[in-house]
Design brief:
By secondary structure, the protein is of the alpha/beta class. It is built from 21 helices and 11 strands. The strands form 3 sheets. It has a 5-stranded parallel β-sheet with strand order 5-2-1-6-7. A 3-stranded mixed β-sheet has the order 4-3-9, with helices on both faces.
């Protein structure tokens, strides 16, 4: 089959939306670190919309920080790829054209630094997941002993961490007499703009205090809240998209129709007209990100662990189960009192909309995918809510079941006895502790609660937390996920 390229665009079916601007004149203005599926279905579509409405020098240069896969898929396609939006009424197809090139940092770090230092680069955005920030999630501070940070301090011209790359680019700009670019985090972590600013400043100060002060005085690090369900693309998705558009696309992305982006409107050198295509430019992002973190992400993680254990491959299947849907309603009832509503938002309506989105049968968002990296996600998604509920003397039964389901998941086998492909930076430590504890809920919960990087020093001493977690974990081993969740209703 012929490949999707600039030359084959004209042969696509009329129903496929394609770039409505001259790609040949598109100049780069954004460098995106970590050009994965989410960025290509979210930031890139907003940018595509902005280019069609108000064309400017806002092409996107992608940068892969580890592997060349993305470059190898997109380069033969001239950077073009399909965004397939799965709606209950049927698929919507659009070709995204704003990506001009993809660099691979390990292959040529100098080329990436040069692109960051180029005068035309005005925004450096990133989606590298929580673990890509090389920080302590509990404090938000840089982990100076992180292997990537140690490497980057010793090899400043060949950095491999996102923080090291950003600092190298800012240093090159300062040396050249240029102003800084805007560093725009699009990752799901609390106060992402402030966290990124602190990490970049701290990293720079470890080798060049003057650079750190220049960044702090002149840099722009807007906070953001991003939202769109973007499942991992499967081989079946690739085959379906290629069939629908009539040419081969090796790099499609799949997303739900819903999207949201709240951005603190603080930029060092301009931005695309994102505000005119649906992004919410606000002075304070925190209420939006806080609402999403606790209500969407907290529910997603809890449902992912329970759903996976119960044999549900996708979020739609899990949330379509009546018992697990009731669990979600109970979970949101515990979460909502801890969430200040952003202006114009009714939290009960937001929860109802979330359940509708979760149940979209056209979206195959795998529970296994959401369950990844739980050690990095739990502190933000569930444990902060639990601490507030305990302080208020409020019940935490549903929240505690979310934590217990995570413990049952990281024990390494599902309810049929099959091994779980556990993806987490602490996977080896989990395996060691789980092997020693076996199916003894008291021993396993105590062993996992002892990981201070996740639970801190306070929660393991709080019996109002440890007792329900242990009780739920025992029930998960004895009765399974659905029966345990049903016992709460």
């Amino acid at each position: 089959m012929t490949r999707l390229t600039t030359r084959t665009l004209s042969s696509l079916p009329a129903a496929v939306r394609r770039p409505a601007y001259d790609r040949a004149t598109l100049a780069p203005g954004i460098v995106h670190l970590g050009l994965g599926a989410f960025a290509r279905a979210h930031l890139c579509e907003y940018t595509e919309d902005a280019l069609e409405l108000d064309f400017g020098a806002w092409g996107v240069t992608g940068a892969s920080l580890q592997r060349p896969d993305q470059r190898d898929r997109l380069k033969p396609q001239d950077g073009l790829y399909t965004l397939l939006k799965r709606a209950p009424a049927g698929p919507e197809l659009r070709i995204i054209g704003c990506v001009g090139e993809v660099l691979v940092a390990p292959e040529n770090p100098a080329a990436l630094i040069a692109r960051l230092a180029a005068p035309e680069t005005r925004i450096v955005s990133l989606t590298v997941t929580e673990k890509g920030y090389c920080h302590d999630p509990a404090t938000g501070r840089l982990k100076a002993d992180h292997p990537d940070i140690v490497h980057d301090l010793a090899n400043p011209l060949a950095p491999r961490s996102a923080v090291g790359i950003i600092v190298a680019g800012l240093k090159a700009r300062r040396t050249a007499g240029l102003g800084p670019f805007t560093a725009l985090s699009c990752d799901n972590l609390p106060h992402n703009g402030g966290v990124l600013r602190g990490l970049v400043r701290d990293f720079a100060a470890l080798s060049d205090d003057a650079l750190s002060q220049w960044i702090d005085a002149n840099g722009a690090f807007p906070a953001t809240m991003v939202d769109r369900i973007v499942p991992a693309t499967t081989e079946a998705d690739i085959a379906e998209v290629s069939r629908l558009i009539g040419v081969e696309d090796a790099a499609p992305v799949i997303g739900e129709p819903f999207r949201q982006w709240a951005i603190q409107d603080v930029f060092a050198a301009g931005r695309p007209a994102w505000d005119r295509v649906g992004a919410q430019m606000v002075t304070e992002v925190a209420p939006f990100e806080f609402m999403k973190l606790r209500m969407l992400n907290g529910a997603h993680s809890s449902l992912a662990y329970l759903g996976y254990l119960a044999g549900h491959e996708t979020v739609a299947e899990a949330s379509g189960n009546a018992v697990l849907a009731r669990f979600l309603q109970g979970l949101w009832a515990e979460i909502i009192p801890t969430v200040p509503a952003p202006q114009g938002v009714v939290l009960a309506d937001y929860a109802e909309a979330l359940l509708t989105r979760f149940r979209n049968p056209a979206i195959r968002h795998r529970t296994w995918q959401i369950a990844m990296d739980g050690s990095q996600k739990l502190p933000q998604r569930l444990l902060g809510t639990i601490r507030e509920r305990l302080k208020a003397g409020a019940p935490i039964d549903h929240l505690a079941l979310g934590v217990a389901a995570w413990m049952r998941y990281v024990s390494g086998t599902d309810e049929t006895g099959a091994a779980i492909d556990l993806r987490d930076p602490l996977a080896a430590e989990f395996a060691t502790r789980a092997k020693a504890a076996g199916r003894n809920a008291a021993a396993l919960s105590q062993a996992l609660l002892g990981i201070e990087a996740i639970f801190g020093s306070d929660l393991p001493r709080e019996e109002r937390f440890t007792r329900p977690v242990e009780r739920h974990l025992a029930a998960l081993f004895e009765k399974g996920a659905k029966a345990t969740a049903a016992s709460l209703n």
